[in-house]
Amino acid sequence: MLPLEHLQTTMARSVLAMEPTIGSKLLIAGKADPLARLRIYQNNTRSSLTAVLMAVFPVTVRLVDERFFRFAASEFIRRHPPVESRLARYGAGFPRFLKSIDTLSDMPIVAETARLEWAIAEALDIASLPPCSLADHENSDPSASPEILVQPSLRLIVSHWSILSVWSAHQQGAAADRHSAWPRRAERVALWRAGDNIRLIDLDRANLAFLHSLKHGFGLEHAAGRALALDPAFDLVSALVRLFGDGLVADVRNIANSPKNSWRQS
Amino acid sequence: MPNMFSPLTIPASAGIGLRSPHIAEMLTRRPSAGWLEVHAENYMGDGAGVQALETLRQTYPLSVHGVGLSLGSAQGLDRDHLERLRKICLRFEPDLVSEHLAWSVADGAYLNDLLPLRYDEEALAIVARNVEMVQDTLKRRVLIENLSAYLAFTDSSMNEAEFLAALVARTGCGLLLDVNNVQVSAHNLQYDAKAFIDALPAEAIGEIHLAGHATNQVGTDTVLIDDHGSRVPPVVWALYQHAIDRLGPRPTLIEWDTDVPVLDVLLGEAMWADMLTASIMFSRKQAARRAQTTAAEATPIRLSVEAETTTSMPVLAAFAAARAAKPSISLARPSLEEKYHAAA
To answer: N or C: which end of chain A has fewer CB within 10 A?
Structure first.
């Protein structure tokens, strides 16, 4: 008799491989064929995980047609099954997998759009903190250096393709043409969770660098420096007003100018 | 950080599984629902649903139902996942916590389905060890749910009910009796559903699940699929009646996971469960009174008309009893059955 761990490994492989590698003599199902019953588990695993991927990548589904998506998802599930039961984390590798599919080699925008959708899924599972307003900090110490903490759900994506335009065209109410050729145009997208919703904006290079620095905790001075290096016309005041206005500021900490702080900016 | 909710005890009445399409309506309407149950894995992140649940938890008693702990995995538990479950219990302070007698993790993969165990001493030692670890970590008793199965293992040395009874004796855990799962497994594996329920230690059963299932025909094989995608069917109501008759009232959950209908349908099913329980308890009380009356016949006391009126069966409870008895009722009056259905 197989040890239980060996039996479960064999059965798991049978369920994922979509072909019975487990001996039928080990199984029983009343008067029914046990291998036919094993297919129920195979179908359950494949269909439920495909449903998870379809929920995370709805625009990608529409870009490639549902039947093709189901085929791709099925292959992905077989080769890269979830490693944990938190299914909110399942699908991170799907955009890269789509990129590797030969059939999609002349449609790189599919995998890129999937990348955007994965970022949305990630942001939806992260806290949306109450946003700070500029008025909250009117009386802050002018000698201190304010450090901005942005919403933890903020995600930044750079693509050579117009992914935000594609994604927006497929939202409810938009008249999307699946067959239209999407131009190769770089888009830099910032997205974050605001309550029950996701907000997405298209950024220029300077604003992307600005947000990138803030997101990674490099500090406001570093962020402004990076943005100005890319665009001498970068307007820090406008950027800050927009940052607060968009609800992207989760906290502002006033840090006294001290040697302790200076190392972070070096 | 714990939220310090006031403790809300789950009553021995019906509740509903909280599903995302209903969250907004639950928040605005706050309908009368005995209690709520959530899938633990849906609240392990920090999305909008988590904040909503914190709000609902202030009003409704809560049960946390895990689907991904894989208590039957021979490779042992995922400690990270158990820690996440511990944090959920800390955060929401549920009155009940439950998981399944099943495995879903092996060979480094999570299969997103609940697979059956080979019921033998080796598996019992493994599951008992895992359940003890969960109870030690959560510092509470957990309820273990029977499985809906499509196949079994030839080398099992006991049946699922015997396995569950032994698990209760070994770990002190409680049981979650899923009546729909009993029906699905009993049909698929050809055993007696009522005998399964009767073989479980009654005092350990802390919760009951009710749901619908699908019927698939594959060649000559009629297989019941546990899809939680329809109303509780008459055969499951009848089995529920049998369970309540034996156990008395228990917290009872209406589960619905696929093709989720409007909230009122779930609330209606919950109402039927309550009515059916009420009718069973009423019948039991009546029977006890009759017995008492018979015993006291030497000095008969005539009940007044008013007294008789107050002990009549509630109309809805009678409806529920009739509905549950449907399989055994002659099909001679289909129009009446239609009316019952429409009333649900």
So the answer is: C
Selected residues 36-55 of chain A with any CB under 8 Å from a CB in chain B: 36-38, 40-41, 44-45, 48-49, 52
Q: A37, B223: Cβ pair inside 8 Å?
A: yes
Cα–Cα distance for residue pair B4/B7, rounded to 1 Å: 9
- Which member of B74, B75, B108 has the closest CB to residue A83? B108
A130 interfaces chain B, CB cutoff of 8 Å: no
Domains and CATH numbers, chain A: 1-125 (no CATH), 129-266 (3.90.930)
Contact list in A for residue B23 (CB cut-off 8 A) is: none
Average pLDDT, chain B: 89
pLDDT at A203 over 60: yes
Express each pLDDT in B184-211 by its tens digit.
Answer: 999 999 999 999 999 999 999 999 999 9
pTM of the predicted model, to two decimals? 0.88
Closest residue in B to A89 (Cα–Cα): B45
Least confident segment among A184-188, B92-96, B101-105 = A184-188
List the end-to-end C-alpha distance of chain A, in Å, as a whole number: 64
